[in-house]
Design a protein that fits this description.
- The protein is an alpha+beta fold.
- The protein has one domain.
- It is built from 3 helices and 8 strands.
- A 6-stranded antiparallel beta sheet has the order 1-2-3-4-8-7, covered by helices on one side. Strands 5-6 form a two-stranded antiparallel ribbon.
- It starts with a helix and ends in a 17-residue tail after the last helix.
Length: 157
C-alpha cells in the first residue's frame, strides 16, 4: 500500500519548489504532474511537462521507475551538432502494460515514456523531487553510460 502521508508531504515540497499552479496529481495518488519542468541546455526546448507514475507500494519499498514527458524532445548530438532522438525515450511504454491506463491511452495523449528506474525508495534519495532531478541530469547527458545510476539503463550501440 502507498504511503499517502509521505506522498502528500512530497507534493507540498514540489509545490514550494515549482509553484502550486504547476503541480497536479490525481486523488488516488497514482501520478504527479509538473508542468514546465526546466530542461538542461542542449535540448530543443527549455521546458517539458512530466508525469511521474507513483507505484502502488511507494513509500513502502517500491521506487519510482516510470515517467512520461513531452513527445517532441530532441538532444543536440555532440559530434554532429544536429538534434537527434534521446536514448531511453520511447514512443510507447516498452513493457507489457503501464501501471495505470493503457499504452494506447498514453500514445493518444501524446506522451512519451522516459525509462529511468530509481534504485531505492528511501527518503530523500527516492523522493519525487530527486527523481525529477535525475530526469534533468539524464537529459543533460543522455549519451553517458548511466547503468551504475539507473538499474533500467542498458547502453545501446
Amino acid at each position: 500500500m502507498r504511503d499517502y502521508h509521505r506522498l502528500y508531504e512530497e507534493i507540498q515540497v514540489l509545490e514550494k519548489k515549482f509553484g502550486a499552479q504547476r503541480v497536479f496529481w490525481d486523488e488516488q495518488g497514482n501520478w504527479v504532474m509538473v508542468r514546465d519542468l526546466p530542461l538542461p541546455p542542449g535540448l530543443n526546448k527549455q521546458s517539458t511537462n512530466v508525469i511521474v507514475i507513483i507505484p502502488e507500494h511507494y513509500g513502502n519499498g517500491a521506487p519510482l521507475r516510470d515517467a512520461f514527458i513531452d513527445p517532441d524532445l530532441r538532444v543536440r548530438a555532440p559530434k554532429t551538432g544536429k538534434f537527434v532522438e534521446i536514448p531511453h525515450y520511447f514512443q510507447e511504454f516498452p513493457y507489457e502494460q503501464p501501471p495505470i491506463e493503457t499504452k494506447e491511452d498514453w500514445a493518444c495523449k501524446k506522451w512519451r515514456y522516459i525509462c529511468l528506474h530509481q534504485p531505492t525508495d528511501r527518503w530523500p534519495q527516492g523522493s519525487i523531487l530527486n527523481y525529477l532531478s535525475n530526469v534533468y541530469k539524464f537529459l543533460a547527458e543522455p549519451f553517458r553510460d548511466w547503468q551504475a545510476t539507473f538499474s533500467s539503463y542498458k547502453e545501446h550501440p
